[in-house]
Amino acid sequence: MVEFQNVSVWFGDNLVFKNLNFTVNDGEFVFIAGPTGSGKSTLLRLIYMDIFPNRGKVIVGKFDSSKIKRKHIPYLRRRLGIVFQDFKLLDDRNVFENVALALHVTGAKKKEVNKKVLTALAEVGLSHKKNNMPEELSGGEQQRVAIARAIVNEPFLILADEPTGNLDPDTSIEIIELLKKINLRGTSIIMATHNYSLIERVKDAKVYQISNFNLTQIK
Ligand SMILES: Nc1ncnc2c1ncn2[C@@H]1O[C@H](COP(=O)(O)OP(=O)(O)OP(=O)(O)O)[C@@H](O)[C@H]1O
Ligand SMILES: [Mg+2]
């Protein structure tokens, strides 16, 4: 479903990946661990095609980084759910609207938008906050809104870049438990983190560590 073929990436004289081969299969929960600056975010950006390999290619579903046209990248992104450390909610829209936005761009009908947004908010346990503004929510609640936004299009893959990086330990556990629940329903998850105690909470996960410009599977 995701396949890196001989991927090399560098920024100027700063090498990040050298000849990386890496596959993620349907339904897997995969952690990418590694110290700051090792390339976790770069790896996720390659998957949502925010950047492209200098050598080799990345295949995500039917999308191939070596062939994709710029105008088709939004179609790839609609098939993915992306969650960031800093939530990236729109401050001037309420919770419902933040989640609905991803559906408006697909041209979904109002009734369908309503149903899907309420389902996603129920999934993350925030139905009661649908009319609140982001600033009225705790950090953990804001991240759950971001997760609702990520799942509302029923993606086949969720990419999470240190989604618990701004959260306290208990709230981080809530978020990882939520991602586990989403994964159990069949959505693949690739999560970047350097928090090994969180990694241990996902028993069936595959764990890769970035070292020597490559990935080493450690579990
Ligand atoms: N657009 C860019 N231009 C130049 N260098 C970059 C760019 N993006 C990333 N880098 C460099 O690539 C390396 C990997 O960065 P990346 O952001 O992927 O690390 P990371 O593992 O996500 O780190 P962190 O844990 O701090 O988020 C770093 O040395 C970074 O400075
Ligand atoms: Mg990063």
**Which small-molecule species are bound to the chains here?**
adenosine-5'-triphosphate, magnesium ion
Tally the helices: 7
Mean pLDDT rating? 97
How would you characterize the largest beta sheet? 6 strands, mixed
* Low-pLDDT residue intervals, each spanning 5 or more residues: none
Task: Give the N-terminus to C-terminus distance in angstroms.
Answer: 20 Å
Number of strands: 10
What value does the Rg take, in angstroms?
17 Å
Would you state the CATH class of the domain at 1-79 and 187-219? Alpha Beta
Domain ABC transporter: 2-218
Subunit structure: Homodimer. Forms a membrane-associated complex with FtsX.
Membrane topology: Peripheral membrane protein
Keywords: ATP-binding, Cell cycle, Cell division, Cell membrane, Membrane, Nucleotide-binding
Description:
- It is a single chain.
- By secondary structure, the chain is α/β, with parallel strands linked by helices.
- The chain has a domain at 1-79 and 187-219: Rossmann fold (3-Layer(aba) Sandwich).
- It has 7 helices and 10 strands.
- It has helices at 40-47, 73-78, 95-104, 110-123, 139-151, 169-184, 196-199, and strands spanning 2-11, 14-24, 29-33, 55-60, 63-64, 80-84, 157-161, 188-192, 206-211, 214-217.
- Strands 6-7-8-3-9-10 form a 6-stranded mixed β-sheet, sandwiched between helices. A 4-stranded antiparallel β-sheet has the order 2-1-4-5, covered by helices on one side.
- The radius of gyration is 17 Å and the shape is globular.
- It starts with a strand and ends with a strand.
- The mean pLDDT is 97.
- The site of adenosine-5'-triphosphate has 11 residues, from strand 2 and helix 1.
- It is found in: Cell membrane.
- Keywords: ATP-binding, Cell cycle, Cell division, Cell membrane, Membrane, Nucleotide-binding.
- Homodimer. Forms a membrane-associated complex with FtsX.
- It comes from Candidatus Thermokryptus mobilis.
- InterPro entries: AAA+_ATPase, ABC_transporter-like_ATP-bd, ABC_transporter-like_CS, ABC_transpr_LolD-like, Cell_div_FtsE, P-loop_NTPase.
